[in-house]
Amino acid sequence: MNILNLFKVSLRAISSNKMRSFLSMLGIIIGVAAVIIMMAIGQGSKESIRQELSTMGTNLLTIRPGADMRGGVRQDPSAMQTLKPNDYETLMAEKKYVTKISPEVNSAGQVIYGNNNTTTTAYGEAPDYIDIRQWVIEDGECFSEEDVKKAAKVCVIGKTVVTELFGEGADPIGKTIRFKSIPLRVIGVLKSKGYNSWGMDQDNLIIVPYTCVMKRIAAQTWFSSIVCSAITEELSDQAIEEITEILRRTHKIKEGAVDDFTIRSQAEMMETMSTTMDTVTLILVVAAAFSLLVAGIGIMNIMLVSVTERTKEIGLRMAVGATGMVISLQFLIESVLISLTGGLLGIVLGCCVSEFLVPAMGMPSSVPAWSIFVSFGVCVVIGVLFGYIPARKAANMDPIDAIRHE
Question: The pTM is what?
Fold first, then answer.
């Protein structure tokens, strides 16, 4: 049994029916390309989200009010007033695994300058917020702790606010804007971050001393949340334990009672988002993989037709000494060659679309190397599985009946 001769015979059989062979490959080409494109979009989206979250700091921790039961009714966490200035002061005094802390008090509304206005959100923060969220002051400076103590009416604004109120490329430093009738002097401009993965404009914001927002704008005595950064990402768990112990003590929560606050780490959010995107990618890949199943059935159908058409040829080869195994292997090789050729063309098509067309459509894309090897292996499996039945049919023919076949 000469394998090389069998390959030559198989290639001649495929080339003699070019159109039929190509149509058999077409299903494999489309199926493999679809799987690679779906994997690329899923992987690209996951990397984009992870990168987006990492820009906020991988060691970021967020403390929010927790839900509570009052009169048998579970309250909305956003309506709870459990985070107080005393919590912030105690955390600042006792922290060991935390480097920077900033309380947050937010208020959405209209900001005005002259005849121009736009809707934005004022974030009441401490000076540490700039470092925690990894913002960069492009022009001017950030407000100081002294400004926080005085509840100074100063602010740092994002690029979108600059463009809407002052025009593209304008210098707003030193000018006074009005937010909910409160005058705020612009002392700094943030470097642009653009839109995030959820389509939100990160530059449409105003950062103000939290005391100013609490006393002059929102008129409240509690914090919406507290953000802080652990010393390192690896020490995030120790930082969470430390914060939990401090807040339970300041809130006088009894042992065994449920916390009236929640703490979320950026690493936890990244893991959750990665798991979600893996699930979405798996669903997309499974949907695309069904086309490979249909393509395999198409190959089996074409090979069965080929066996029927070449019945006399099979009988003659058996008559001159070819065994059933040789005949079976010949048709199996033809099936694998069709599947592999289609798979290679599908890989090229899928990679080209993922690298050029998908990004041009504004979607993130990243082709994982393992997806190419998996696609190649799947094509081999399809060729063997769906070529086996036609190959066995050819091998089981009676030589005399095959020769007499018309």
Answer: 0.63
